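INPUT
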Amino acid sequence: MEYRKIKDEDDDGGTVSDDIENIRGKGFPGVASVSTVPPREQAKWKRKTIVTLALTFLTSSQAILIVWSKRAGKYEYSVTTANFLVETLKCALSLAALARIWKNEGVTDDNRLSTTLDEVIVYPIPALLYLVKNLLQYYIFAYVDAPGYQILKNLNIISTGVLYRIILKKKLSEIQWAAFILLCAGCTTAQLNSRSDQVLQTPLPGWIMAIVMALLSGFAGVYTEAIIKKRPSRNINVQNFWLYIFGMAFNVVAILVQDFDAVMNKGFFHGYSIITTLMILNHALSGIAVSMVMKYADNIVKVYSTSVAMLLTAVVSVFLFGFNLSLAFFLGATVVSVSVYLHSAGKQQR
Amino acid sequence: MEYRKIKDEDDDGGTVSDDIENIRGKGFPGVASVSTVPPREQAKWKRKTIVTLALTFLTSSQAILIVWSKRAGKYEYSVTTANFLVETLKCALSLAALARIWKNEGVTDDNRLSTTLDEVIVYPIPALLYLVKNLLQYYIFAYVDAPGYQILKNLNIISTGVLYRIILKKKLSEIQWAAFILLCAGCTTAQLNSRSDQVLQTPLPGWIMAIVMALLSGFAGVYTEAIIKKRPSRNINVQNFWLYIFGMAFNVVAILVQDFDAVMNKGFFHGYSIITTLMILNHALSGIAVSMVMKYADNIVKVYSTSVAMLLTAVVSVFLFGFNLSLAFFLGATVVSVSVYLHSAGKQQR
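OUTPUT
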């Protein structure tokens, strides 16, 4: 059994690009340089940079942990219990952060844990969308193999851009759209291998499912951003707490449906190892980083962040595991790098 | 024996992009629309568009003729005689065009055939540069195979851009540089096949030769542009005439050195067929189109033109010869298309 959820988020796209974007964007000819930006803007930019770098670092180390643990053999633990622990850990970390804030700032309207039905009713929706997407995942493998699915997942990049535009009504400049298409093409190129052409033979139902999954995943991401940004002054840890509470609830259902017997017979923690623990820890932290990026940056930054992380993972794997980089990887990495630059350069056009 | 020169120019890079560039550039927000452009500018733009489209069409049909003739079996004729005929035909066509001009406009300082040493002394230089490059070509195959060489030839794109900047002192905007890097990455991606990774194992002398060849080829192209543009009012047909006279002279030497015995024993036209004739005709016309693009546009347009032609060839080959397009081709074609768009969008930045 595999730690599917980790693999999943790994591709759902976020960005080291945005800090680059900001550094460049601010130092660009005709645009105020960093030093003339008001302190509040600077603080915002710093926060955005930190969460973006954190997401990139966590996402790339996530993939490396997966490779590492695979070398050590197959997992024996149940995916659903691991996912439940990830949600629980994220919930606990949000509460810990809140406790510190309450101690320092006192309880206010923005950081109190209690909520209204009006605020909380939308929180289960992203979790539900991911659930449907994960269910579809079982069926799509009737049409494509796993490496082919990894390639098709790059459709998420395009669907996120389109839904970001439609749902959040935010504009990307023409050059930023061009950059987004390049990001998708570059990521796919970097993942090409000798059997990738089989993807083109995917039958129509496979294509439709891939597109539906990309839309669900993009919608879940953009919807989460909409929820979190709807109340800008609301503390992110409270928002996370409620998101994760529903995540826990959904995962309890998943354990009961899918792994009830295994958990009953072998125990909840059967098959756990140091690597499992590290992966759960990493996954929880990157989940929080995703939320932070949604709050302080956006889905576009998230997509860039995870794309750059994918490239970083490959480069680090050369040193750690002796992997070879293909010519396709170099070409894809070049295209992704140019895309990151263009996303920042395209900001002026907006 | 293969019609090497045809294959060669096929990759030396030139653009359908520029007409797009112009159409877009002019219809762009904030920039005057086509209808408000003065008639002289419009005529210039029209001429630029026509020569660019002609070059793209001729280059792509050139490659298709090569595939077609290969299917019909190997060539029996000598390459040097075919190259000589190409130069002779170009010379004859230039003279024919001049005769018409003389009849209509009379002989002027700009269209008279007689020249000065000062004007003509630089004309043999591009031909010499190509000669050295073609000699190197024999040696590089000790390090890379033919498909690998096709991939390395994309370095011409970068060398042309760099030398264009240095020698002609013309500026490309940052976005146009990004577009140029993308053009190189996209063309290479489109040509990827299962054995392309071997290129990365090319030994150092192979890389050095590939880079030297790219620089020679880029230098020859940029130098030709410099020669032709040095006297803007001089009639292009006179300039071509002198370029081609030296081309003929160099090819006479090549026949004597390389194929003297074969020509003496079997005759000058031994092994010629309808396809050979078509290829010579096509090659002569595209040679003239390259000169026209140098005169009325530039090397950047030439590089885009031949890159787009490479993609067109592949698409047309699907219908003509039942070729399959790879996923890498689609990705490369996407990147090249975005590059064409960015080159036009980047014009405003300049």
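end of record. The CA atoms of residues 228 and 239 of chain B lie 7 Å apart.
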